[in-house]
């Protein structure tokens, strides 16, 4: 068994030992606790899929502990343009991920803990899992006022949300996962979870806004490592399991055959954006050039992440209708994303030899890009 030197003091309080990942294949039946060494959202979500699809959970329960670098994670049936600030995320290198489970949008960073509880379908009980987390927190810091709600969230002091919940129910297996805010950057959280895009109509699942607070704000002595250890210890006690955390690398194909393909699927454009429920966008935008100030109207239908219909209404005295139609026809069938739209627009602009019309066309194209 391997105990990290930096964790020795920690283990005096919480008797949880970490063993190498090779122990996973031969681990005994019953409760099993895994912790990922990866901070990559796609590999960690892929491991959830791998366990769900591969592991026999009839006589085994699994707790998976994981953390990610900065990422916005949306639910399976959500619209990223409605849920987050994609432009700000692109500018700051913050990833977007879409879960296999439903639920609302959350922000992950290294100050947030993710817990996934795997069971057979018949043993699935998310409120039991949340009570386990509350019990672990109370054991660690008895003064904490933490309660589970009917919505299966965890509230601190009856007001602040510190954990959100989602689940995937298969035919014979199920998993419930939740977040736990320890020391998340709330400034970034509030910025990226505020969509600048309006005029969207969709049947996608909307997130429910809530006040949030870090556990560290309530007790500055808490750390993510302490919380992970306390939850692992409580889980082991509850499931009569050994107090061992198996440290695993979810990118390891020898340990988890086929997991690379699962990770690639999760970061593919067709999954991240193409799975967005059909939506429409209707916008009135102002254009100002050297001689004019005018409003334009843009209406689009987007299906499977691609522009299905497009109508651009521009005063004909400013730009000939034929040029608007050419832009519209070029956009239909393309991805509703700035990268592909920029490519389409640049190819279109190269066909225009008239400088004044080119300038107006370019202004119009740049306005279209702001929708994405």
TrEMBL record:
Function: Lipoyl amidotransferase that catalyzes the transfer of lipoyl moieties from lipoyl-protein H of the glycine cleavage system (lipoyl-GCSH) to E2 subunits of the pyruvate dehydrogenase complex (PDCE2). Unable to catalyze the transfer of octanoyl from octanoyl-GCSH to PDCE2. In vitro, it is also able to catalyze the transfer of the lipoyl group from lipoyl-AMP to the specific lysine residue of lipoyl domains of lipoate-dependent enzymes but this reaction may not be physiologically relevant.
Protein name from the UniProt record: Lipoyl amidotransferase LIPT1, mitochondrial
Pathway info: Protein modification; protein lipoylation via exogenous pathway; protein N(6)-(lipoyl)lysine from lipoate: step 2/2
InterPro entries named in the record: aa-tRNA-synth_II/BPL/LPL, BPL_LPL_catalytic, LipoylTrfase_LipoateP_Ligase
Catalytic activity: N(6)-[(R)-lipoyl]-L-lysyl-[glycine-cleavage complex H protein] + L-lysyl-[lipoyl-carrier protein] = L-lysyl-[glycine-cleavage complex H protein] + N(6)-[(R)-lipoyl]-L-lysyl-[lipoyl-carrier protein]; (R)-lipoyl-5'-AMP + L-lysyl-[lipoyl-carrier protein] = N(6)-[(R)-lipoyl]-L-lysyl-[lipoyl-carrier protein] + AMP + 2 H(+)
Molecular function, one GO term: lipoyltransferase activity
Originating organism: Eublepharis macularius
Keyword Mitochondrion attached: yes
Keyword Lipid metabolism among UniProt keywords: no
Gene3D superfamilies attached to this UniProt entry: Bira Bifunctional Protein, Domain 2, CO dehydrogenase flavoprotein, C-terminal domain
Pfam families per UniProt: LplA-B_cat
NCBIfam families: lipoyltrans
Superkingdom as given in the UniProt entry: Eukaryota
Localization of this protein: Mitochondrion
